[in-house]
Amino acid sequence: IPLFLGLFYGISTLAFSFLNPKKNILSILILATSLSIFEYIRSFLFGGFPWNLISFSFVNYLEFIQLLSVTGTYAFNSIIILLFLFPAILFFNYKKNFKINIFIFFITVIFINHFWGSTNLKQYESTKNRDLGFIIKIISPQININRYFQNENPSEFIAELINISDPNPSNKTVFIFPEGILSSIYFEDLKNFKDLFSNNFSKEHKIILGMNVYENEKIYNSLLVLNNELKVLDKYYKNKLVPFGEFLPFEKILQNLGFKKITQGYQSFSSDNRRDLIKLNNYNFVPLICYEVIYSGKINKTKKNYDFILNISEDGWFGNTIGPHQHYSHLIFRSIEEGKAVIRSSNNGISAYISPKGQVIDNILTTEKGFIELKSFKKSNKTIFSSQGNKIFFYFLFIYISLIFFFKIREN
């Protein structure tokens, strides 16, 4: 994929360079800057959708993408675009020695980055595991998405979830279930099945699951922390809603024409603007529901230090496509950027535990069901990007624009 994209952008540069008769480095810088700005804007404009950025083609090259801890996704994306475009210099009107020197420079930079990434990974691997003091069970039930359109029996699904999670009453455990796993009922309705929880989970257990909450005539897609008596210990209401999936844009107009969101019910979900850290047994978690995890630099609103990124998701809407794998790749980028481990429970998607360096410690694929058990973890230092955020992208943008002016002045 990286080679294919490199070829694609190389051809794009050649096409662009015809607009510049001199075919010089200036054309590459202008195109790289323009594409970088475009990729950033489409990630945030009108709600944004930062899906399949060019840089994600390197998701399997962990040594190479450790740079994310410094640059973040958007600055790294601009570097990758520039890297893909520079082979077009071969076709430009420069002396042979200049072209050779440029290629030596880029190969050296790539080698240094790879060496730094490898060293970074080895240093992390040499650190000792820390005992959590409790067990985290990441549950992956793989319940068919068709339940959204059927009159399901909640007790059957609850029994299946309990069976998969295999609770041991004497073990201090946190059970993490996916987003919207009981789609046809609200949390208030779940209390009718309280006995199923109290009889199977003990006072040593905490339960995290995604539920719809009806509150003050509003519906929230929520992440709830419960005890075995279904008492709410903590909660998070989703901030970033999916257009048409969770809310209908221009609802007052389109609803009169018979349009509705594709999930159950006619009323759109409401969004919240708070994302407080969730504390579990002396550890802090950043809660993220579904595709909130794809927004680089936007996950920790409190700016306080935390230990884990917690993501629950329903990926059944993708069907039998590459979508769940594309969604999953964002977890690796977020873990490296933030320097934090990612815990993810997904229904019809990939559930996983990912290290702060993007290493997949364990996962459960889209076609499987079961649980991942976590008893210890390795802590990682806070990253530069986690402190600076997407400001780093604008630093890079400033450098690119300055170079453009420099070469333009020199050309004149």
Q: What does the model show?
A:
The chain is 39% helix and 20% strand. It has 412 residues and is α/β, with parallel strands linked by helices. It has a 6-stranded mixed beta sheet with strand order 5-4-3-2-1-12, with helices on one face. Strands 6-7-8-9-10-11 form a 6-stranded mixed beta sheet, covered by helices on one side. Helix 2 runs antiparallel to helix 12.
| Percentage of residues in DSSP E strands | 15-25%
Strand order of the largest sheet: 5-4-3-2-1-12
Q: What summary fits the major beta sheet?
A: 6 strands, mixed
**Number of strand segments:** 12
Compute the CA-based radius of gyration: 24 Å
Q: Give the H and E element order.
A: HHHHHEHEHHEEEHEEEHEEEEHH
Helix content: 25-40%
> What is the SS-derived class?
alpha/beta
Quick synopsis:
This protein has helices at residues 2-17, 25-44, 62-65, 68-85, 96-125, 154-165, 187-190, 194-200, 251-256, 323-338, 384-388, 391-411, and strands at residues 130-140, 173-176, 205-215, 218-226, 232-237, 278-280, 283-289, 308-314, 341-347, 351-354, 360-364, 370-377. With 412 residues, it is α/β, with parallel strands linked by helices. The two termini are 39 Å apart.
How is the topology of this model organized?
Elements: H1 2-17, H2 25-44, H3 62-65, H4 68-85, H5 96-125, E1 130-140, H6 154-165, E2 173-176, H7 187-190, H8 194-200, E3 205-215, E4 218-226, E5 232-237, H9 251-256, E6 278-280, E7 283-289, E8 308-314, H10 323-338, E9 341-347, E10 351-354, E11 360-364, E12 370-377, H11 384-388, H12 391-411
Helix pairs in contact: 1-4, 2-4, 2-12, 4-10, 4-12
